[in-house]
Amino acid sequence: MSDEDEPQGRSAFDWIGGEAAIRTLVDRFYDLMDLEPAYRELRAAHGSTLDDARDKLFWFLCGWMGGPQHYIERFGHPRLRARHLPFKIGILERDQWLACMDQAMGDVQVDADLRARLRESFFQTADWMRNQHV
C-alpha cells in the first residue's frame, strides 16, 4: 500500500489503528480459518499450529501498511511469492484467503473505505501468489 492512496497522506497503518488493531485483525483472521468449514483447504495448508503464521502475518502487515518493518528486521525482504512456492495456491486457496480476511475485517470493524482499499490490494497480491492454474 502507498501513503498517497490514503486520506491526508495518512498510512493504512495509522488509519487502521496501529499495531494493536493489526494484531486484532490477524488474530480474528486465523481464528476464523481455524473455526469455519468454508476455509478448510486454506487451514489444511498451514500445518498443526497457526502461531508462527499469526506472528509472520502480523509482522508483515505492520510494514506493508506503512508501520514498523518487523518482518524485514527479522527475515529480510518478504519475497512473498518465493516463500509461498512450496504451498499449493490456486483459485480456491486464493478465494478462501480473501474471504477469510474480508470476514475478519468486517468482524473487527475496519473502516469501510479502508476495507475496500485493502480488499483490492489483498486481491492483487493473492492473485499474484497463485502457483496453480485452478
Question: What's this entry about, in short?
Answer:
The protein is an all-alpha fold and 134 residues long.
Give a written overview of the molecule.
This protein has helices spanning 12-16, 18-35, 40-44, 51-64, 70-75, 80-84, 91-107, 112-129. The chain is mainly α. The chain has one domain: Globins (Globin-like, Orthogonal Bundle), CATH 1.10.490.10. The longest helix has 18 residues, at 18-35. The model has no long low-confidence stretch (mean pLDDT 91).
Number of strands: 0
Cα Rg: 14 Å
Task: From the 3D structure, determine the CATH topology.
Answer: Globin-like
State the name of the first-level CATH class: Mainly Alpha
Largest sheet: none
What is the H/E string? HHHHHHHH
SS-based class: mainly alpha
What's the average pLDDT?
91
Which architecture name does CATH use? Answer: Orthogonal Bundle
Layout of strands and helices, then pairs:
Elements: H1 12-16, H2 18-35, H3 40-44, H4 51-64, H5 70-75, H6 80-84, H7 91-107, H8 112-129
Helix pairs in contact: 2-4, 2-7, 7-8
Which properties best describe this structure?
0% strand; Globin-like; mainly alpha; globular
